[in-house]
């Protein structure tokens, strides 16, 4: 994917999901110098509808070769530079489904357009200066958002709330570099360098970089979600907990131990964070081969989960079997849920002091939907107790941005060491340039083609 080649030809793609009988409207998008000529070949607009930018035309799409009508549609024109890609953009708004949009795309390709690569429309918007790299990545995050909070964070990035502070930090570093290089080249003609001011500026820039880096884990959680495994002995109410939490009947609930034979999943949102909840088979020694497989899968799910909920039954108390399961999962982030608390009051329970001292405790009666809010608060508290101190921020960096900002942080720290060791000014400039380059990579002011390929290859086609 080369930047020069992208701006010379015209690309086309289906810009909406193609799902049988699920979508009422399907959109085929073109961008490039031949977008309007291709549209004129395909679209028949009755009357005197003007072909002007940002107007919607009504008409029919026709195959130029057979003159057969393909679809009744709307045509949206967005001419350069007032378009997403800053090129001429045409959108055909067709009937949804599979056949109409596929046929329209095919005739666009027959008229000279090229099938767009993943993310190529957004890449053109970046290359043509319409958006920066953080905004481009935010578009992908917005499309893939799995919770309202994830969507809000992506929207903040799309509005430039990440790019703006990065540009300010880079501008400060450029000003420092200019001051230092001026003293190197014109030492006799300028007043001495204000070293205290330089130190203060570097300290401020470094603090801002570290502040942004603190949002990395938060961003990862919002994008990928949290995997939570509910484990415990058979018949302690794990499936009832999953059903109550997800407000569904995903798991079969009976009084017979060993009912759950496999891992049952449900997707939830807790505090704006997507959560994948796994209800696992009761962990015990089983003679049934099928149940043995389920128990083994439960153990694997617990080991791979980000957070484990160990459920016990209040009416049975803490049993040797509970202790054995606890020993298997105690090294994982853990919450202890005492279920069926409607049967036995909390004061009557005798729980191990070593467990209570280290593991958050939640009392629940899942079958009566009691304690769900307490469980969610315990999960959020567990997250906050880790390294996610930026939970209330409206922006969060991704892994690529975190890696680049880490390089900037190390370069800035090295400048501070260079100053402290009173090395010549030439040494200052080496790491200052490294920090400036790294900050520029975040927004795309300094970026290689291979980096662009990695970023935009993860986009969907048509975006």
What's the short version?
With 463 residues, this protein is of the alpha/beta class.
Please name the defining characteristics of this protein.
463 residues, alpha/beta, six-stranded mixed beta sheet, flat, 17 helices, disordered N terminus
**Overall helicity:** 40-55%
DSSP E strands, number: 13
Beta-strand proportion? 15-25%
Calculate the terminal CA-CA distance, rounded to whole Å: 15 Å
Q: Roughly what is the average pLDDT, rounded to an integer?
A: 83
List the helices and strands in order.
HEEHEEEEHEHHHHHHEHEEHEHEHEHHHH
Sketch the major β-sheet.
7 strands, mixed
Report the radius of gyration as a whole number of Å: 29 Å
The best one-word shape is flat
Poorly predicted segments = 1-6, 250-262, 283-287, 387-393
Structural category? alpha/beta
Q: Taking strands numbered 1, 2, ... along the chain, how are they ordered across the largest sheet?
A: 3-4-5-6-2-1-7
Please count the helical segments: 17
Structure description:
With 463 residues, the chain is α/β, with parallel strands linked by helices. 45% of the residues lie in helices and 17% in strands. The protein has helices at 3-6, 35-42, 99-110, 120-127, 133-143, 148-158, 163-185, 195-213, 216-224, 238-246, 289-304, 320-329, 353-358, 372-384, 399-420, 425-443, 449-456, and strands at 11-14, 25-31, 43-44, 55-62, 69-78, 89-95, 114-115, 226-232, 264-270, 273-279, 307-313, 334-339, 361-363. A seven-stranded mixed sheet has the order 3-4-5-6-2-1-7. Helix 5 (133-143) runs antiparallel to helix 6 (148-158), helix 7 packs antiparallel against helix 16 and helix 8 (195-213) runs antiparallel to helix 15. The protein is flat.
């Amino acid at each position: 994917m080369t930047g020069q080649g992208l701006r010379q030809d015209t690309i086309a793609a289906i810009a909406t999901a193609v799902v049988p009988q699920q979508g009422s409207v399907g959109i085929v998008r073109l961008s490039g110098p031949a977008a309007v000529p291709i549209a004129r070949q395909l679209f028949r607009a009755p009357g005197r509808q003007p072909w002007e930018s940002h107007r919607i035309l009504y008409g029919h799409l026709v195959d130029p070769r057979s003159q057969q009508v393909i679809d009744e549609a709307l045509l949206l024109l967005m001419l350069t530079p007032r378009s997403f890609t800053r090129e001429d953009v045409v959108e055909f708004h067709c009937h949804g489904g599979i056949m109409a949009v596929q046929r329209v795309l095919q005739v666009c390709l027959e008229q000279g357009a090229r099938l767009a690569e993943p993310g190529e429309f957004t890449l053109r918007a970046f290359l043509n200066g319409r958006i920066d790299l953080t905004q481009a990545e935010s578009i992908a995050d917005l499309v893939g958002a799995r919770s309202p909070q994830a969507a809000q964070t992506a929207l903040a990035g799309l509005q430039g709330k990440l790019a703006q502070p990065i540009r300010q930090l880079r501008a400060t570093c450029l000003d420092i570099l200019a001051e230092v290089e001026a003293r190197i080249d014109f030492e006799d003609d300028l007043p001495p360098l204000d070293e205290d001011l330089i130190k203060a500026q570097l300290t401020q820039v470094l603090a801002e970089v570290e502040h942004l880096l603190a949002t990395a884990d938060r961003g990862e959680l919002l994008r990928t979600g949290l995997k939570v495994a509910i484990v415990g002995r058979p018949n302690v109410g794990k499936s009832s907990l999953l059903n109550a939490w997800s407000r569904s009947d995903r798991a079969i609930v009976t009084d017979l131990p060993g009912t759950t034979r496999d891992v049952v999943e449900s997707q939830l949102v807790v505090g704006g964070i997507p959560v994948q909840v796994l209800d696992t088979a009761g962990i015990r020694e089983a003679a049934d081969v099928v149940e043995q497989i389920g128990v083994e899968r439960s153990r694997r799910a617990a080991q791979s989960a980000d957070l484990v909920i160990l459920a016990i039954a209040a009416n049975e108390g803490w049993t040797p079997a509970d202790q054995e399961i606890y020993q298997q999962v105690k090294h994982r982030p853990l919450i202890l849920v005492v279920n069926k608390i409607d049967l036995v009051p909390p004061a009557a329970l005798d729980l191990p002091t070593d467990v209570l001292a280290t593991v958050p405790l939640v009392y629940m009666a899942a079958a009566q939907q009691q304690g769900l809010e307490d469980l969610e608060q315990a999960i959020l508290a567990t997250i906050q107790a880790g390294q996610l101190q930026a939970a209330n921020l409206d922006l969060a960096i991704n892994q690529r941005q975190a890696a680049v900002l880490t390089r900037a942080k190390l370069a800035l720290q090295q400048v501070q060491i260079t100053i402290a060791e009173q090395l010549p000014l030439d040494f200052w400039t080496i790491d200052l340039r490294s920090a400036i380059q790294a900050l520029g990579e975040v927004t795309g002011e300094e970026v290689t083609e291979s980096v662009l390929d990695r970023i935009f290859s993860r986009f969907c086609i048509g975006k």
